[in-house]
Amino acid sequence: MMVGAPRVDIHGVKYYPVKSAYQGFQRQFVRVLEPINPAPGKPRRLVYVLPVEAGVNNLKSTWSDGLEELRLLEVSNRFNMTFIAPSFPYEPWYGDDVTNPTHRMESFIVDDLVPFGERFAQGNIPQRYLLGFSKSGNGAFTLLLRNPRIFNGATVWDFPAQLSSFTKFPALRFNFGTEDNFKRYNIPALVLNNSEPFKQQNRLWISGDQSDFWRKQGGGRTRWALGTSGQSIGGHIVRMDVRACGHVRDSESGGSDDRAEGFGTTGSGRAGHNPTRRRRV
Questions:
Q1: How far apart are the C-alpha atoms of 133 and 140, rounded to whole Å?
Q2: pLDDT, greater one: 131 or 225
Q3: pLDDT tens-digit map of 67-115
Q4: CA dist 33 to 29, 45, 74, Å?
Q5: What is the CATH number of the domain that holds 236?
Q6: Bridging pattern class, strands 45-49 and 81-85
Q7: Is position 21 within any domain?
């Protein structure tokens, strides 16, 4: 991946122009927000904030902007987290199109974006997390399940985990290419068939909301697919909590700092990462 010199906005967010073969060498921006005055005693963590829409998001975007919301909440300093937010030239569903080498979003993240993020680890072995909502929740979930040696954990909410129709959304074809390839990213199948790396610790937080919209979109079925009434599949692969999306947002929810501190970590603070040695399902 080719990386240009960043520009820095008034809030300290760096905008890196990048070009990658996996995205057809189109110019993209990767935004980075580093802690300025991190809380002492907390290990450096890298959080990949995945967008829902194409292009660079902001607070006026349809689904707002994850990185900006995190900045406003001062999460970076509170938890010593560096946020890395990619952008994409087409609607992201986070798959590799097997028919088009310039539409390979998963490969871009694992092979280009993760090594890019290592420069912000300050010489330490970083913990790597994924954060996603809606279709980027699907992306975070599948990236973790398909690449468990790359990422320590993920936080996802309000996402269509039961999605199985290749024709339901036009952008699915741009992200996966064929229906057979799309099936390799099916979340219920990944949960059942790739549970082994998740049996020793909690590495995934899942949440919905309590609105009629969530229920109508199959929130109950999602819970069933991933663990009835909050039960885990394959050990500790899932912990259900309707407040999980706020476990670093709401310091009054009770134990939020401890949740963020202990989630998905190991004694070494790593997930056994080698960017050149991926475990794909």
A1: 8
A2: 131
A3: 888 898 888 888 889 999 999 999 999 999 999 999 999 999 999 999 9
A4: 13, 12, 10
A5: 3.40.50.1820
A6: parallel
A7: yes
